Please model this.
Amino acid sequence: TLMMEGAPAVQLQGPTGDTVTVLLRGAQVISWVDATGVERLYRSPLSPLDGPQPVRGGVPVIFPQFSGRGPMVRHGFARTSLWEWLPADAAGAEPQLVFRMQHAAHETPLWPHDCACTLTVALVPAGLRMTLAVHNTGNSPLSFHAALHTYLEVGDVARSTLTGVLPQGEVLSLAEPIDHLFESVPGPFALRSPATALDLVHEGFTDAVVWNPGPQAVIADLPAGGYARFLCVEAASVGVPVQLAPGAHWQGSQCLFIAT
Ligand code: TA6
Model:
Protein backbone atom coordinates (compact mmCIF):
# COMPACT_ATOMS: atom_id res chain seq x y z
CA THR A 1 0.00 0.00 0.00
CA LEU A 2 1.01 3.60 -0.51
CA MET A 3 -0.18 6.82 1.08
CA MET A 4 -2.27 9.17 -1.05
CA GLU A 5 -2.81 12.54 0.62
CA GLY A 6 -2.63 10.83 4.01
CA ALA A 7 -4.84 7.87 3.12
CA PRO A 8 -3.75 4.27 2.49
CA ALA A 9 -4.28 3.25 -1.11
CA VAL A 10 -3.27 0.60 -3.62
CA GLN A 11 -2.26 1.21 -7.20
CA LEU A 12 -2.33 -1.18 -10.13
CA GLN A 13 -0.77 -0.71 -13.54
CA GLY A 14 -1.97 -2.60 -16.58
CA PRO A 15 0.10 -3.98 -19.45
CA THR A 16 -0.48 -0.86 -21.58
CA GLY A 17 0.33 1.64 -18.82
CA ASP A 18 -3.22 2.32 -17.68
CA THR A 19 -3.38 2.79 -13.90
CA VAL A 20 -6.09 2.51 -11.28
CA THR A 21 -5.83 3.75 -7.69
CA VAL A 22 -8.05 2.46 -4.90
CA LEU A 23 -8.38 3.72 -1.31
CA LEU A 24 -8.64 1.10 1.42
CA ARG A 25 -11.33 3.25 2.98
CA GLY A 26 -14.46 2.29 1.10
CA ALA A 27 -12.47 0.28 -1.48
CA GLN A 28 -13.06 3.46 -3.39
CA VAL A 29 -11.52 3.79 -6.82
CA ILE A 30 -10.27 7.37 -6.93
CA SER A 31 -8.37 7.44 -10.20
CA TRP A 32 -8.31 5.63 -13.49
CA VAL A 33 -5.72 6.92 -15.91
CA ASP A 34 -5.87 5.42 -19.38
CA ALA A 35 -2.94 4.25 -21.49
CA THR A 36 -2.56 7.74 -23.00
CA GLY A 37 -2.29 9.37 -19.57
CA VAL A 38 -5.80 10.81 -19.43
CA GLU A 39 -7.72 10.70 -16.11
CA ARG A 40 -11.18 9.26 -16.76
CA LEU A 41 -12.75 9.79 -13.34
CA TYR A 42 -13.65 13.01 -11.57
CA ARG A 43 -12.55 13.75 -8.02
CA SER A 44 -13.24 16.99 -6.21
CA PRO A 45 -10.12 18.88 -5.13
CA LEU A 46 -12.05 19.98 -2.02
CA SER A 47 -12.68 16.47 -0.73
CA PRO A 48 -9.95 15.09 1.58
CA LEU A 49 -9.00 11.45 1.06
CA ASP A 50 -8.29 10.81 4.74
CA GLY A 51 -11.81 11.28 6.03
CA PRO A 52 -13.95 11.40 7.96
CA GLN A 53 -16.38 12.37 5.18
CA PRO A 54 -16.92 10.14 2.15
CA VAL A 55 -14.71 11.11 -0.79
CA ARG A 56 -16.52 13.15 -3.45
CA GLY A 57 -15.43 11.46 -6.64
CA GLY A 58 -14.10 8.28 -8.12
CA VAL A 59 -16.36 5.32 -7.44
CA PRO A 60 -17.93 5.19 -3.98
CA VAL A 61 -19.40 1.74 -3.26
CA ILE A 62 -22.98 2.22 -2.12
CA PHE A 63 -24.11 -0.58 0.22
CA PRO A 64 -26.44 -1.66 1.84
CA GLN A 65 -28.71 1.40 1.51
CA PHE A 66 -29.06 3.79 -1.39
CA SER A 67 -29.19 7.49 -0.54
CA GLY A 68 -31.80 8.22 2.14
CA ARG A 69 -34.01 5.26 1.18
CA GLY A 70 -33.95 3.71 4.64
CA PRO A 71 -32.97 4.47 8.23
CA MET A 72 -29.22 4.18 7.80
CA VAL A 73 -26.55 6.77 7.15
CA ARG A 74 -26.86 8.13 3.59
CA HIS A 75 -25.66 5.59 1.02
CA GLY A 76 -24.83 3.02 3.74
CA PHE A 77 -21.64 2.19 5.55
CA ALA A 78 -19.50 0.55 2.86
CA ARG A 79 -18.07 3.79 1.50
CA THR A 80 -16.61 4.84 4.84
CA SER A 81 -15.57 1.40 6.13
CA LEU A 82 -12.02 0.16 6.01
CA TRP A 83 -11.69 -2.69 3.52
CA GLU A 84 -8.93 -5.26 3.50
CA TRP A 85 -6.72 -5.71 0.45
CA LEU A 86 -6.49 -9.38 -0.53
CA PRO A 87 -3.78 -10.99 -2.62
CA ALA A 88 -4.86 -11.36 -6.26
CA ASP A 89 -3.42 -11.73 -9.73
CA ALA A 90 -1.94 -8.34 -10.48
CA ALA A 91 0.12 -9.51 -13.44
CA GLY A 92 -2.09 -11.45 -15.89
CA ALA A 93 -3.87 -10.24 -19.00
CA GLU A 94 -6.55 -8.68 -16.79
CA PRO A 95 -4.64 -7.58 -13.69
CA GLN A 96 -6.87 -7.03 -10.71
CA LEU A 97 -7.13 -5.85 -7.13
CA VAL A 98 -9.48 -7.46 -4.64
CA PHE A 99 -10.81 -5.91 -1.44
CA ARG A 100 -12.96 -7.42 1.29
CA MET A 101 -15.25 -6.02 3.93
CA GLN A 102 -16.70 -8.32 6.54
CA HIS A 103 -19.69 -6.98 8.39
CA ALA A 104 -20.99 -8.40 11.66
CA ALA A 105 -24.63 -7.99 12.67
CA HIS A 106 -23.81 -6.20 15.94
CA GLU A 107 -21.82 -3.45 14.21
CA THR A 108 -24.90 -1.80 12.71
CA PRO A 109 -28.12 -2.08 14.74
CA LEU A 110 -30.05 -0.59 11.81
CA TRP A 111 -28.87 -3.41 9.53
CA PRO A 112 -28.12 -6.38 11.81
CA HIS A 113 -26.75 -8.87 9.29
CA ASP A 114 -23.56 -10.85 8.84
CA CYS A 115 -22.14 -10.58 5.36
CA ALA A 116 -18.91 -10.49 3.41
CA CYS A 117 -18.47 -8.13 0.48
CA THR A 118 -15.69 -8.13 -2.05
CA LEU A 119 -14.88 -5.50 -4.62
CA THR A 120 -12.75 -6.61 -7.55
CA VAL A 121 -11.18 -3.90 -9.69
CA ALA A 122 -9.75 -5.16 -12.97
CA LEU A 123 -7.90 -3.42 -15.78
CA VAL A 124 -9.30 -5.00 -18.93
CA PRO A 125 -8.37 -4.09 -22.52
CA ALA A 126 -9.34 -0.40 -22.95
CA GLY A 127 -11.49 -0.59 -19.87
CA LEU A 128 -12.05 -0.79 -16.16
CA ARG A 129 -14.26 -3.44 -14.60
CA MET A 130 -15.53 -3.23 -11.04
CA THR A 131 -17.37 -6.15 -9.50
CA LEU A 132 -19.16 -6.06 -6.18
CA ALA A 133 -19.99 -9.44 -4.62
CA VAL A 134 -22.06 -9.99 -1.50
CA HIS A 135 -22.24 -13.22 0.49
CA ASN A 136 -24.81 -13.68 3.23
CA THR A 137 -22.70 -15.32 5.91
CA GLY A 138 -25.44 -15.21 8.53
CA ASN A 139 -28.36 -17.53 9.22
CA SER A 140 -31.22 -15.20 8.34
CA PRO A 141 -32.22 -13.58 5.03
CA LEU A 142 -30.99 -10.10 4.26
CA SER A 143 -31.80 -7.45 1.68
CA PHE A 144 -29.83 -4.52 0.37
CA HIS A 145 -29.38 -1.83 -2.23
CA ALA A 146 -26.07 -1.56 -4.03
CA ALA A 147 -24.58 0.88 -6.51
CA LEU A 148 -21.25 1.83 -8.00
CA HIS A 149 -21.57 5.60 -7.79
CA THR A 150 -19.21 6.35 -10.68
CA TYR A 151 -18.10 10.00 -11.14
CA LEU A 152 -17.06 10.24 -14.79
CA GLU A 153 -14.94 13.15 -15.97
CA VAL A 154 -16.89 14.80 -18.81
CA GLY A 155 -15.29 18.23 -19.16
CA ASP A 156 -18.63 19.97 -19.65
CA VAL A 157 -21.79 18.17 -18.56
CA ALA A 158 -24.07 20.51 -20.51
CA ARG A 159 -22.44 19.33 -23.72
CA SER A 160 -22.70 15.65 -22.82
CA THR A 161 -25.21 13.03 -23.86
CA LEU A 162 -26.11 9.58 -22.65
CA THR A 163 -27.88 6.93 -24.68
CA GLY A 164 -29.28 3.63 -23.45
CA VAL A 165 -31.17 4.73 -20.36
CA LEU A 166 -34.22 6.00 -22.26
CA PRO A 167 -36.45 3.80 -24.41
CA GLN A 168 -36.11 3.56 -28.19
CA GLY A 169 -32.55 4.79 -28.27
CA GLU A 170 -33.63 8.28 -27.23
CA VAL A 171 -30.71 10.47 -26.22
CA LEU A 172 -30.67 11.89 -22.70
CA SER A 173 -29.51 15.48 -22.76
CA LEU A 174 -27.62 16.64 -19.70
CA ALA A 175 -28.10 20.38 -20.10
CA GLU A 176 -30.27 20.41 -16.94
CA PRO A 177 -29.55 19.03 -13.46
CA ILE A 178 -30.65 15.43 -13.08
CA ASP A 179 -31.06 12.94 -10.25
CA HIS A 180 -32.92 9.96 -11.62
CA LEU A 181 -33.23 6.23 -11.04
CA PHE A 182 -33.80 4.42 -14.34
CA GLU A 183 -35.25 1.06 -13.36
CA SER A 184 -34.67 -2.21 -15.21
CA VAL A 185 -32.36 -0.86 -17.88
CA PRO A 186 -30.11 -3.54 -19.36
CA GLY A 187 -27.67 -1.16 -21.08
CA PRO A 188 -25.13 -0.73 -22.48
CA PHE A 189 -25.01 3.06 -22.19
CA ALA A 190 -22.99 5.37 -24.39
CA LEU A 191 -21.62 8.55 -22.83
CA ARG A 192 -20.31 11.19 -25.20
CA SER A 193 -18.85 14.42 -23.93
CA PRO A 194 -16.12 16.94 -24.72
CA ALA A 195 -13.68 15.06 -22.47
CA THR A 196 -14.68 11.45 -22.87
CA ALA A 197 -16.36 8.76 -24.91
CA LEU A 198 -17.25 5.72 -22.85
CA ASP A 199 -19.47 2.70 -23.27
CA LEU A 200 -20.83 1.44 -19.96
CA VAL A 201 -21.84 -2.17 -19.51
CA HIS A 202 -23.32 -3.69 -16.41
CA GLU A 203 -24.23 -7.20 -15.31
CA GLY A 204 -26.06 -8.31 -12.19
CA PHE A 205 -27.20 -4.78 -11.44
CA THR A 206 -30.69 -4.00 -12.69
CA ASP A 207 -30.90 -0.20 -12.65
CA ALA A 208 -28.94 2.92 -13.44
CA VAL A 209 -28.79 6.18 -11.55
CA VAL A 210 -27.81 9.35 -13.37
CA TRP A 211 -26.87 12.35 -11.27
CA ASN A 212 -25.58 15.83 -11.82
CA PRO A 213 -26.40 18.52 -9.26
CA GLY A 214 -26.25 21.49 -11.64
CA PRO A 215 -24.95 24.98 -10.82
CA GLN A 216 -27.51 25.89 -8.14
CA ALA A 217 -26.91 23.04 -5.70
CA VAL A 218 -24.81 23.89 -2.67
CA ILE A 219 -22.36 21.07 -2.10
CA ALA A 220 -19.66 22.05 0.37
CA ASP A 221 -17.00 19.70 -0.97
CA LEU A 222 -17.36 20.72 -4.63
CA PRO A 223 -15.56 23.78 -6.01
CA ALA A 224 -17.43 26.48 -7.95
CA GLY A 225 -18.11 25.11 -11.40
CA GLY A 226 -17.09 21.62 -10.30
CA TYR A 227 -20.53 20.22 -11.11
CA ALA A 228 -19.89 20.79 -14.82
CA ARG A 229 -16.89 18.50 -14.86
CA PHE A 230 -18.62 15.24 -13.97
CA LEU A 231 -21.58 13.04 -14.59
CA CYS A 232 -22.44 10.20 -12.23
CA VAL A 233 -23.68 7.11 -14.03
CA GLU A 234 -24.19 4.36 -11.51
CA ALA A 235 -24.86 0.70 -12.06
CA ALA A 236 -27.38 0.05 -9.29
CA SER A 237 -29.86 -2.33 -7.75
CA VAL A 238 -32.19 0.02 -5.93
CA GLY A 239 -35.77 -0.20 -7.29
CA VAL A 240 -36.07 -3.79 -6.12
CA PRO A 241 -33.70 -4.51 -3.23
CA VAL A 242 -31.58 -7.64 -3.60
CA GLN A 243 -32.75 -10.48 -1.32
CA LEU A 244 -30.17 -12.99 -0.16
CA ALA A 245 -31.01 -16.21 1.65
CA PRO A 246 -28.54 -17.49 4.27
CA GLY A 247 -25.42 -18.69 2.47
CA ALA A 248 -26.42 -17.13 -0.86
CA HIS A 249 -24.25 -14.95 -3.07
CA TRP A 250 -24.99 -12.00 -5.37
CA GLN A 251 -22.74 -10.08 -7.66
CA GLY A 252 -22.95 -7.09 -9.93
CA SER A 253 -20.39 -5.49 -12.16
CA GLN A 254 -19.90 -2.32 -14.11
CA CYS A 255 -17.44 -1.98 -16.97
CA LEU A 256 -16.24 1.33 -18.40
CA PHE A 257 -14.94 0.89 -21.94
CA ILE A 258 -13.11 3.59 -23.82
CA ALA A 259 -14.97 4.12 -27.08
CA THR A 260 -13.07 5.03 -30.19
O1 TA6 B 1 -26.81 8.91 -6.55
C1 TA6 B 1 -27.48 10.12 -6.54
C2 TA6 B 1 -27.47 10.69 -5.15
O2 TA6 B 1 -28.22 9.89 -4.29
C3 TA6 B 1 -27.98 12.10 -5.27
O3 TA6 B 1 -29.28 12.26 -4.77
C4 TA6 B 1 -26.92 12.95 -4.63
O4 TA6 B 1 -27.24 13.47 -3.44
C5 TA6 B 1 -25.70 12.06 -4.65
O5 TA6 B 1 -26.15 10.73 -4.63
C6 TA6 B 1 -24.56 12.32 -3.70
O6 TA6 B 1 -24.78 11.87 -2.42
P1 TA6 B 1 -23.72 12.14 -1.28
O7 TA6 B 1 -24.25 11.50 -0.03
O8 TA6 B 1 -22.43 11.51 -1.73
O9 TA6 B 1 -23.60 13.63 -1.18
In short: The two ends are 33 Å apart (CA to CA).
